[in-house]
């Protein structure tokens, strides 16, 4: 039981288990119940880590931008053992993760795991390479590649859209951005899958070593033979004599790979599913394609990729409404729960593609607001709109209750999305 006290003396509830298999099947009911319990609720993850869940929109937005909450994982890692409710599970966790981490340090010296001033410096340097012009220039290539994939699907009666469409588009776009040659992509994909699984197995450690060696060599090749890609630009960028070191370049490439495709895959998967389950919205879009940008914003709110959590820890006690979270505790901010807060969105469990979307938190908020949001929106719009235009009779091949969801502490996404193309 955490040693928190409430300023108004209201009792802090017992930690509840979150991220169970039942939760992944339907997180929104569980998150709504927790929102009604308290503004910050202590919860325990399946591997035994104690953390505080934030599920209200206002609180989420405030805490995302609160400098008392840190993302510096070099410090945060040392707090992990302190935040185990069950000593047995802590021992198992430490035995499995060895040095408290399944990733070598070089993969986490990036901006998402750092605070100012490091974050400010990294984001400024990367912002010089990751420009709006570069994203806009990708549009015709993304359209062409999507249409090729749709041609491939057209011959089949039944397909898994995660494998055939939702995964390949964002992954290939990231490979274009990083300048990963086509022949290397299947190996790159294998390491990437292992690394994002988050498991502390020897196989994952081997994948991280291979990934680092590969990225180091790729960076070297961009230095000697610069090409028209973001990694070549990142090697060159400098700001008043400052440049990214090789370790920072490796870490940045890794961040772009993970942040850039894991999330967008699930925007495409969850957004497509939402439309398959809401024929009226589908008809609205068919008659008025100008609604697509708003529809994508609504998919992000209704069942966004980062529904489950973004992570931080407190560097001093932080009051959240009536609850005081002590210093040195983990805080998980559920962006999906924030998007369904009835205090912010009327009838929040209803998909409404005509809703207005100011100040959404689906891409975070504050200094860590998603760097790739314009690219993700572009990919989401192109892929989902072209899919439904090409296959007007597209429908789910199984009952919604048979769909299997991934068990991730951060992401909400489908294992498979089986559909009948109607051909
Ligand atoms: C940060 C969501 C796609 C690159 C974030 C954060 C969120 C997010 C919530 C902030 C996390 C936090 O504060 O803890 C999403 C969603 C996406 C998406 C929902 C797709 C629908 C992308 C893409 C890229 C990207 C396509 C790049 C190619 C980044 C980077 C950061 C970030 C570099 C770190 C920014 C910083 O720390 O300053 N994203 N993202 N994301 N995202 Fe995305």
UniProtKB/TrEMBL annotation:
Pfam family, one: p450
InterPro entries: Cyt_P450 (IPR001128), Cyt_P450_B (IPR002397), Cyt_P450_CS (IPR017972), Cyt_P450_sf (IPR036396)
Gene3D superfamilies: Cytochrome P450 (1.10.630.10)
Keywords per UniProt: Heme, Iron, Metal-binding, Monooxygenase, Oxidoreductase
Family to which this protein belongs: Belongs to the cytochrome P450 family.
PANTHER family: CYTOCHROME P450 YJIB-RELATED (PTHR46696:SF1), P450, PUTATIVE (EUROFUNG)-RELATED (PTHR46696)
Name of the featured protein: Cytochrome P450
